[in-house]
């Protein structure tokens, strides 16, 4: 399980005295624990843990954007390091071509023909891509495809 992998890496970072990684993994573990408390679970399913990691990554990417504008190089290196740590636990993202393929399949399976059917297509596409693509990007492609069809 993903939560166990994170714990093992946390222990390894403790042993190797990697202070930055220990602090960041501790922060991630706290987020996972809080989500577990919300869901009244001792252990999170991998999909639930992935949603916590994706949320943290999104926050880091937003912070990175702000920091790049402010020119604080030291903090930027730390954020990049934290993003790399999170990326190690996230599944490999789908390429644009793979996303289009899944979306085309979803459009065919749902019989969608216009933007009115976007919800059905989005739901099925998100299930098929299971955390390997950003919903915002999927939405953009679905809108493009369904707008062209109407």
Describe the structure in your own words.
With 150 residues, the protein is mainly alpha-helical. The protein has two domains: 2-87, Hypothetical Protein Yqey, Chain: A, domain1; 96-149, Arc Repressor Mutant, subunit A (Orthogonal Bundle), CATH 1.10.10. The protein contains seven helices and no strands. The chain is globular, with a radius of gyration of 19 Å.
Give me the secondary-structure topology.
Elements: H1 2-15, H2 19-39, H3 46-70, H4 73-87, H5 96-110, H6 118-129, H7 135-149
Any idea what the CATH superfamily of the largest domain is called?
A: Uncharacterised protein YqeY/AIM41, N-terminal domain
**CATH architecture of the largest domain, please?**
Orthogonal Bundle
CATH level 3 topology of the largest domain: Hypothetical Protein Yqey, Chain: A, domain1
For the record, the CATH class of the largest domain is Mainly Alpha
SS elements, strand count: 0
CA radius of gyration is 19 Å
SSE class: mainly alpha
- What does the average pLDDT come to? 90
- Unreliable sequence segments: none
Distance between the termini: 44 Å
Q: How large is the share of residues in beta strands?
A: under 5%
Helix proportion of residues, in percent? over 70%
Encode the helix/strand succession as letters.
Answer: HHHHHHH
User: Sheet with the most strands?
Assistant: none
Instruction: Please count the helical segments.
Output: 7
Envelope shape? globular
Provide the domain count.
Answer: 2
